[in-house]
Structure prediction request, 346 residues.
Amino acid sequence: MIKIIKIDEDSRVPKYKQIVDSILTNISNGSLRINQKIPSINSFSEEFYMSRDTVEKAYNILKERKIITSIRGKGYYITQTKLISKVNVLFVYNKLSSYKMATYNSFIDTIGANAHTDLQIYHCDETIFLNLLDKYEGAYDYYIITTHFKTEDLKHSSYTDAVIDAINKIPKEKLIIMDNIKLGINNDVIKIYQDFENDIYNALKEGLEKIKQYTRIILVYPEKAVYPYPRRILHGFKKFCVEFGINYEIIDEIYDDIVLKKGDLFITIEESDLVNLVKQIRDTEMKLGKHIGVISYNDTPLKELLGITVISTDFKIMGETAAQMILNKEIGQVKVPFNFIYRKSI
Prediction:
């Protein structure tokens, strides 16, 4: 196998990437087959006079993509060849949620059978995010990334200098920025985004006639959260209330003994707050949608089933758009629709 691996000493392509590409090429043309043994890391590094770390990085990428596998005491083997003719995509998400998965599933359905997509979650942790980009550098044809991070005091941050530096290492033609446009990246990449401030403002404006029936509107915005939310949501909410003269309040959470009054309209962001609020309303003589209103941020099938009014991005369109832009090799910015969806909770 050593004879068919091509490493160009004069190339500017990193050697670990050359190893990955050469192995993939030889699988694609039939020179390497499933279950065929490949050289050990030490043998490879000695043959090509390169560091063990370089070879190990290449092998780790191939293992992550399930191209090769290691068997203790026996060595490394080719495990599959089906991904080579496909477009390989890395989806880097800040968290798992029903609406995030709606985007992901929509993307998978639209991109079709000629693509292989891996999903990685960094839990709003900048260190995990940076390690993921470093680990998978050069390993995929496209990188779809979201940028939502938590600071030390559990507040939201869209990016840091280190994040920008890491993203800039991804070739522009391979980069898709999703969900968050507040990122210091040039415009000649794919951006499919929400406009958090104007989205909530416009959606509430759309539902103004229903909202005006209530005496006070309360936004439940968690100031500190494991998965923090952009403060632009707050700005858009305040802008709406001030412009239309609506009495408002902002609280951190739905407390277990929260004071409920007729004429209150709550906007909840976190699912736990929505559940807690609905439970407490049911424990009173007041009726949901009549005496107390509820609007939830981001739609889910369960909210639709329960008749909860929402203000929400169309996550299905977000995933479809990303896939279509990859398939059509487009570059540009697309603002995803954000809607007020009226149901019986107000």
Observations:
- Residues 11 and 18 are 9 Å apart (CA to CA).
- The mean pLDDT is 91.
